[in-house]
Predict the structure.
Amino acid sequence: MTELGVNIDHVATVRQARRTFEPDPVGAAFAADRGGADGITIHLREDRRHIQDRDLELLRKVVFTKLNLEMATSEEIIRIALRTVPDQITLVPEKRQEVTTEGGLDVKSQVKKLAKVVSRLQKKGIVVSLFIDPESEQIEASRDAGADAIELHTGEYANAPRAKRQMAELNRLVRGADKARDIGLIVNAGHGLTYKNVGPIIRELRAAELNIGHSIIARAIFVGLEEAVRQMKELIVQYST
Ligand code: PXP
């Protein structure tokens, strides 16, 4: 069954709004775990706008499911990753001005450079995933770069203004997933997924893992994080059968 990686960056965003000690992402990881999360996802951004180095270090010590670190390919962050050794790394593009990760990684234009980064991380036993748009050439380039997995960007699907467009995006994702599996890549997916739009993705994509943040943390404000994660897990069970 599809696993659920809970992105807890927003918990750190609330803490950083006051530069204080609460809420602590470590507490969030425990709550997500009690709700049935299969993993915890965090993005250590170069500008440290939410997750801090101490969060990564502590989470590495307390997360026994799967710690998935999203990161850009900057040398500083690569060194931190090699030192802390998360279970999985998802390489993402990163721009300082963006509110959140915008497009997928352009793997095709930098296969050689990415292959070096992928191999350095894999030598530490880290599973490496590349966050990409569902395009054939990016999928092939991900294989060429030696990645273990891809995370298909579901943002276009999530933001589609009309049902017809959303269906077309879903089909594009399914074609991408099929192609990736055919060439031996593990298929994950994420970005913009909500309690309302996740059903068809679970049912049609059969991804190994979905990474979901904003919608879960938004619901957690009203029902608590443990319950918010439980509700998302229930959807996964419901749409997987
Ligand atoms: N996957 C990747 C690669 C991301 O960058 C993000 C956002 O940090 C997510 C998944 C989660 O997206 P959302 O917060 O919209 O659920």
